[in-house]
Amino acid sequence: MNLPSSSAASPAAIRPRTSWAVFFAVLGPGLVVMLADTDVGSVITAAQSGAQWGYQLLGLQLLLVPILYVVQELTVRLGIFTGKGHGELIRETFGQGWAWVSVAGLAVATMGAVVTEFSGVAGVGELFGVPRAWSLALAAAFLLVVVWTGSYRRVERVAIALGLFELVFIWVALRAPVHGGDVLAGLAHVPLHDRGYWYLAAANIGAVIMPWMVFYQQSAVADKKLGPADYRYARWDTAIGALLTQVVMAAVLVVAAAVLWRGHGLVQLDTVGQIAQAVTPTLGRTLGHTVFGLGMLGAAMVAAIVVALAAAWGFGEVTGYKHSLEQHPLEAPWFYAVFSAGVIGGAVVVGFVPNLVALSVGVEVMNALMLPVVLGFLVALAVKALPPEHRLQGGYLRVVLVVVGLTSILGVFGGLSALF
To answer: Residue 327 — φ and ψ, nearest 5°?
Structure first.
């Protein structure tokens, strides 16, 4: 793919009417990946944080907004000013061997994440008495039809529509019995001496910054053919998405804290059913399960689309096979085959393995341990592969290095704590 220019068929080039028209044309990659970020594992982590520590981890959710933006903005910058996906850029900059290292990690993270999302689908189905086989088959078939029959823009719109169901968590939080004094007390008291607190803090970081997010957003920016003229709007797309996903996470935490927190950390939430029963008592069983089920199903489905597409793009960029949603399945058979294998494989695993909690824990540990490699590649590319005027340098480079370093340290600490 050639370096994009202002004359490329980007939204800014084809829709030069108003700033708002260009913004809504560019909007998508950042919003989709951030909605996918609030996936099943993230919701469970936020609920567990509120149940065990009340509002004491609420401040971290807000602190993660700029951290998430800093990381994902680099993918926007790389995608727009090189016109290439993450795997392709690693291959061209550091060689085929390092590219395979990056995509191997992506494959492991992708399979684990898809399994987590389908576990959420199965959990929602069980809330309403739907057999696991039926809910998994319907979800997998829906995802395959959407991607196999749609263009990039159509897939993006479907993903946004699914992800917006997560907003029901905010509505639930507004109806929860939240007391302002308890919130302020929780924000003011941070038990830095407690290893259990630090473990869940690390888990929240690992639930917010995931390897497949980097691959997806950079490849989506390239597949959407965004150019330099779209850069400002793409950054706003990422910023809005980062704020929205953390507001949703904070809402889940607030509901769990308001309903379950009793000044101790004995509550253990591990399944979709337990969370639904625990955080929606003020809505009644039927309405509570319906609202919570919609939010969880939306989170699981948008994340499944993003995760499987990230794998298909990543493998295509490293191997060189055609890898675009703008190409017909007959033109890019391997791209669609990898996507389908991820979706079907995740559904089959969840269908045959009953211990979904253990699977979810394994996925979080895996993501946390891979953060140094994933974020290291991202920063190295931003320093070396970008045009000189857009490379990381000076004070902002130091800020990024501090953010990435601290995030990686906490992620590895949480992963090792879970293992040992």
So the answer is: -100, 140
d(CA 41, CA 67): 19
Residue 67 to residue 176: CA distance in whole angstroms: 28
pTM: 0.87
Q: Long-range CB contacts (< 8 A, 24+ apart) of 400-404?
A: 400/70, 400/74, 403/67, 403/70, 403/71, 404/71, 404/375, 404/376, 404/378, 404/379
Burial 196-206 (b: 16+ CB within 10 A, else e): ebbebbbbbbb
Among candidate residues 359, 307, 50, 291, the one with its CA nearest the CA of residue 183: 50
State the amino acid at position 367 in one-letter form: N
The 8-class DSSP code of residue 2 comes to P
Return d(Cα 265, Cα 244) in angstroms, integer. Answer: 28
Instruction: Pick the closest to residue 368 from 420, 412, 334 (CA basis).
Output: 412
Residue boundaries of the structural domains of the chain: 11-419
3-state helix, strand, coil in the chain (%, to 5): 80, 0, 20
Residue type, 263: G
Q: Does domain 11-419 have CATH number 1.20.1740.10?
A: yes
For the stretch 267-304, pLDDT in tens is 666 667 777 777 777 677 778 788 888 998 999 999 99
